[in-house]
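Example 3.2
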Amino acid sequence: MTMIRHLSPLDRLLDSTQNALSTVLGTPRAQRANPGLDEPEAELDEGERRHAAGLMRVNHAGEVCAQALYIGQAAVARDPATRQHLLEAAQEETDHLAWCADRLRELEARPSLFNPLWYAGSWAIGAAAGLRGDGWNLGFVVETERQVEAHLQEHLQTLPETDTRSRAILRVMKGDEARHADNALAAGARRLPRPIPRLMAVASKVMKSVAYRT
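Structure, written as tokens:
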């Protein structure tokens, strides 16, 4: 049975600060093994390597955003069970972050230079969503994860066929995101008003376009 921690506002602020520093400046550690390790390293030409690196940089930036969203939402969640749900999902997103960072190093590429901006903006959005109440909080999780699933599917379609290491990572990530959305629905997520998913999609498109290159 999962132990639910009851934290003070100061505890939550310190947790958020520690997570931000670890995510943006540190080297997050995965609790699960990297799914790509058992796959052979592909022989990619320079164009394929740059494209694979660009996609994995986008995915790494997306996981920075996911960390910030969940931590921001957890910081203001009213129900301890909802907060625990968000933090457990955030831990799996930490696995994704570490796996993407590993793959970027293998591809001789760096993370997005704008990761601090992605984190700060996403934390603010997550906190704002959480202040609306736990039903909206969980509804935001559902919409976020559904959109992430969609872009991971796009990446699986455009990655070089021989890049089986990146593909293995993205397949596990996609399954995790689907489960996070399903769990949030089961926990009482509310459907977001129609303009919000559209705005989220526009913001995501901007992030992906910038992170692919920088």
